[in-house]
Structures are given as C-alpha cells and as structure tokens.
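Before the break, one more example. Copy the sequence into your notebook; we will annotate it together after we see the structure.
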Amino acid sequence: MGEDVTYSGTVSAAMEATLMGVPAFAISLDLLNGERSDYAPAARFAKELAATIIRYGLPSDTFFNVNVPVGNPKGTRMTCQGKRRYDDMIVEKVDPRGRKYYWIGGGSCEFEKIPGSDFLALSKGFISVTPLHLDLTNYRSFDSLRQWQTPADEAFFHTDNE
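Here is what the structure looks like once it is written out:
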C-alpha cells in the first residue's frame, strides 16, 4: 500500500500484465507477522473483481492494487495511495566483531490518515481497491520545475512543446 507499491512484487506482476495488454490486478491479504488466516474472503473478492473487469474492462494503462483486511470485510472502497510515516527507520548496530552496521526498517511504521486512502480503508475493515497507472510522471511538477535556472541564468528544463 502507499509508496510500498514501488517495490511490491505483486504490483509489479500486475504492471507487467498491463504492459502486455492483459487486464490485471494485484491482491494482498493484510497479514501481520506471517499469521495464518482465512483466505476465502480475499479469494471470493478476487473472483468477483476478475469477472467485473472482464465485463467492463479497465481504462488504458490502468491496473488495480487490492488490499483485503483479515476477517470479513465490511465492503469495498475505491482508494488513493496512502503515505507511510517512518520513525527511526535506520538503526545503527554493532556486529559480534565490533563493526558498525545499519538496520533499515527498525522503527515504527505508521500511516497518515488521509481521507480516501488505501491505509485508512483497510484500517477500518474495508477492501481497498486503488487504480494505478503505468505513467508515473508527475505532471503537476512541470510548471515549478520549468522555473529552475542554470548558473548562467538559462532555463534548466525545456519540454518538447516549447
């Protein structure tokens, strides 16, 4: 969920399918610490979603990231990507030989309570369905980035339509 989609193998598989023109979705069950759980609600939803995608199709270059809560979901929500807040994520440690090393991911991991986000929906017991797009370009940044100047006071960035 959130920014974690950028290194999710499940999301990558759905992205690859989309690149090849195959309608796809990634689906994950929200398990903590590898506990055993009932996969039946997630399986039922996956079957229903697949049939719905076959019926309606997906917008061009779009796939879904689906996250299912443990237990019986309260329903389904279309969501946006949430944002994680990492505290003390890099922890300095010492190995048995006295050499320093760094453990990444050692702190607490919380999510921001963004209305409509995948994290919030899942935390409230809903299945989260986030439509993702292959184009990761941040188009909203273009105007501010065009303001950048080189040391010679020339525009740093140009676009093809200039």
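The two ends are 37 Å apart (CA to CA). The chain has a mean pLDDT of 87. Try to locate both features in your own notes.
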